[in-house]
Write a structure and sequence with these properties.
globular; alpha/beta; 21 helices; Rossmann fold; about 575 residues; 2 domains; about 40% helix; six-stranded parallel sheet; 20 strands; binds pyridoxal-5'-phosphate; ten-stranded mixed sheet
């Protein structure tokens, strides 16, 4: 028998996210946004916060990636069955899409912490008998389909999610929207404020947006307006209907089209970006609003390699739920840090050998680059000058890549194709490997197992970046453009190294690719490679600093304490 009703005891924070990445066997995430959501939930459980999370079931997942022998990405569905591992809730919600009734059900996953904390996560699902065929597939593909499909999903997430929580009997202290995908929930809340007014000339006063604002917290993740979801109003009227009249929707969501970020900004009392710089950039994009910044984190226990888990647990028994203790990393002898890292490297190289047949050399400095493949991340930057790369790195470096491009992102797919093209050119001189199907499982092998973590996005487009925090936790120093979290974590030569100049201003005009490329090669040649090969104690010092000066702070426990004190209890 289910005891889920115990979650109803206290008023909760309701965390809404289009994607949530808790583990690789629930493939309902595409990248950093979803994994942040998963790590947030795990930290909330560690801290025993009263929280509930809502997302979509995405039964066909994001997608499974393979690479064909021409070097092109191929996609196939990555299906999972909630019925096999989750518990179906006894309550359904009814929503209206294109004037049809659509039933929404919810699957419960319990996220438990060793502290005894527990956070329920609800996966919303429209694949229910009685729903029309076309509606049963709404919760199939994460970020699949067209604008119309996306709008339907966002109705399920925002409005369906709010109704399911109400139906189950939750009392909500705050609604936290993780990115604009969930903004339609504000319309559901707005309609709950509706009251009759005597004078029909005064219809606007039937709704009370201020009441909604008091209930909502909004975290924006995208530093460019083009990245924000927008829908034409004729589509909105046809799919969503007009429970909230058009004049009011336009007032709150934008004059010309429904902008989900605008809607969330207008209806949230607390708004934040995901790193200090990203807060500033977002403030410049939306001058009329007050935008704060809470820098992202990672959930340490999830992202430490088994070797590091063992080592940290020996020296700091409660480090998993109290990662601040990592500030004392200097009490661990160098040799033990080095051996734990060598263990993670060996496991990774074994995986590489099994999946690709390539035998990498554990003595060689191995550079990792893995994340969603989007053009702004410049995955192929290190190949800008092959002559120079060979001069600097011949027989001295190995490169490991991984990452998926969105199925509609042709330029992203070309980047993968280019990287794979370099493999042949460099064979015998610099070993380059592209690993297929980057997901949480591969990330947890790859990131701890390389020696140096590379990141070279176009500034200021990396809102935060979290893979670098996972690297730091495992004693893998960052070598990165100063953007996102690295502006806060970087101390040159101490915690890692930067590529190119400090950030200047909030526009992408500050990028000079030539300068970045030159700096990348120069630092590898003159600082990083000599340190790695000729001064091992110096290298281990940087590894320890990554742990003691980055990872002790850039984690979801510290981050959640800030959300609690600055956002949830305001
Ligand atoms: C951490 C993680 C990301 C985020 O990487 P960034 O470099 O911050 O963009 C993306 N995908 C997976 C599988 C991850 O584990």
């Amino acid at each position: 028998m289910s005891d889920w009703k115990r979650f109803l005891a206290d008023p909760v924070i309701a965390y809404f996210s289009m994607e949530i990445g808790l583990s690789a066997d629930i493939p309902t995430y595409s990248g950093g946004l979803g994994i942040l959501a998963g790590d947030t939930i795990k930290a909330a459980a560690d801290l025993q916060l009263p929280m509930v999370a809502v997302t979509l079931a995405s039964r066909k997942g994001y997608f499974h990636q393979s690479i064909d022998n021409q070097g092109w990405q191929q996609e196939s569905p990555n299906e999972w069955s909630p019925e096999e591992i989750l518990e179906l809730m006894p309550v359904k919600a009814l929503i209206s899409i294109e004037n049809r009734d659509v039933k929404v059900q919810a699957w419960l996953k319990r996220v438990k912490s060793p502290t005894g904390g527990e956070v329920p996560v609800f996966y919303l699902d429209t694949d229910i008998e009685g729903n029309q065929e076309q509606d049963r597939t709404i919760t199939d593909h994460l970020y699949g389909g067209d604008n119309e499909y996306r709008l339907k999903q966002e109705i399920v997430l925002g409005i369906g999610g709010a109704r399911i929580l109400a139906g189950l009997g939750f009392r909500i202290r705050k609604y936290h929207m993780n990115e604009g995908h969930a903004s339609l929930l504000t319309l559901e809340l707005l309609n709950r404020t509706r009251r009759p007014v005597e004078d029909t000339w005064d219809e606007r006063n039937s709704w009370d947006p201020r009441k909604v604002q008091q209930q909502c917290v909004f975290t924006t993740h995208t530093p460019v307006t083009a990245g924000h979801d927008r829908f034409p109003y004729d589509l909105v009227q046809r799919i969503l209907g007009d429970d909230v009249p058009l004049f009011l929707l336009k007032e709150l969501g934008g004059k010309d089209e429904l902008n989900m970020t605008m809607l969330a900004l207008n209806l949230s009392r607390y708004v934040n970006g995901v790193a200090k710089k990203h807060g500033e950039v977002s403030q410049a994009l939306f001058p009329g609003f007050e935008i704060h910044a809470i820098t992202n984190g990672i959930h340490p226990f999830t992202w430490a390699s088994p070797h590091m888990v063992k080592l940290f647990s020996r020296y700091f028994p409660s480090w998993g739920t109290e990662p601040e203790l990592l500030v004392r990393v200097d009490t661990i002898p160098d040799q033990e840090i080095w051996e734990a890292h060598a263990g993670a490297k060996a496991i990774l190289f074994q995986y590489v050998a099994e999946t690709t047949g390539i035998q990498l050399d554990p003595e060689i400095l191995t550079i990792g680059f893995a994340r969603r493949v989007a053009t702004y991340k410049r995955g192929n930057l290190i190949f800008s000058d092959i002559e120079r790369l060979l001069k600097v790195g011949r027989n001295k470096i190995q490169l490991l890549f991984a990452g998926k491009a969105h199925p509609h992102d042709q330029p992203g797919k070309e980047i993968i194709h280019t990287i794979i093209g370099e493999i042949e050119k460099l064979r015998g001189q610099i070993e380059v490997v592209y690993l297929e199907n980057y997901d949480m499982r591969l990330a947890s092998l790859l990131i701890p197992g390389v020696d140096l973590w590379l990141n070279n996005p176009i500034r200021p487009l990396e809102a935060s970046g979290t893979s670098g925090m996972k690297a730091a936790l495992n004693g893998v120093p960052n070598f990165s453009v100063l953007d996102g979290w690295w502006i806060e974590g970087h101390i040159e030569g101490i915690t890692g190294w930067c590529i190119g100049p400090p950030p200047q201003g909030n526009s992408i005009d500050q990028n000079h690719t030539d300068e970045d490329v030159r700096d990348l090669y120069d630092k590898l040649e003159n600082i990083i490679l000599p340190l790695y090969y000729e001064n091992r104690p110096g290298w281990i010092r940087v590894m320890k600093n990554a742990i003691g000066k980055n990872a002790y702070y850039f984690n979801t426990q510290s981050m959640m304490r800030r959300y609690v004190s600055e956002a949830y209890f305001r």
